[in-house]
Amino acid sequence: MSPELITEHFIIRALAPNDLLAFSQYRSMPEVAQYQSWGEDYSLSDAKALLEGTDYAHFGQEGHWYQLAIADRESEVLFGDLAVHFIDEQQVEIGFTLAPQYQGKGIACEAVNTLLAYLFNTLNKHRVIAITDTKNRPSCQLVERLNFRKEAHFMQNVFFKGAWGDEYVYAMLKSEY
């Protein structure tokens, strides 16, 4: 079962059908899609397919990705989402996406920190990684602010949206959290 994590300002929970319109709208914005695996043509149908393909009943299953909504505690307005990939029994990859109007307000920092506490303290995971495009400075700054270590700089390792791109791999061990 997927977690329901409550912070001072919002709730982190499984993505729900009533989130999908806002989810698809911010994912289709050029400034949001720029460094993501999807394109500006992300649609409501894409969001529905993503939700239908996610088995939250088996949250934490190795090899699977899960999207968690970051929503206002009271109004349920969707701010963005967290991506969680259970690589193996002890390692997790995370990602984060916020709608532009909610960026720069500390929401991603609070959400990722809350997720890290859950992964390390509740699920007892050993290592969490985040992979970012080297040009995505706000994402790099966020994970660095949260004390992730930069472990790798892959040069032209991914052919992405018509060009070769570089990526940073950041990581944090449970003992470093």
From TrEMBL:
<dbReference type="InterPro" id="IPR000182">
    <property type="entry name" value="GNAT_dom"/>
</dbReference>
<dbReference type="InterPro" id="IPR016181">
    <property type="entry name" value="Acyl_CoA_acyltransferase"/>
</dbReference>
<dbReference type="InterPro" id="IPR051531">
    <property type="entry name" value="N-acetyltransferase"/>
</dbReference>
<dbReference type="Pfam" id="PF13302">
    <property type="entry name" value="Acetyltransf_3"/>
</dbReference>
<protein>
    <submittedName>
        <fullName>GNAT family N-acetyltransferase</fullName>
    </submittedName>
</protein>
<feature type="domain" description="N-acetyltransferase">
    <location>
        <begin position="10"/>
        <end position="175"/>
    </location>
</feature>
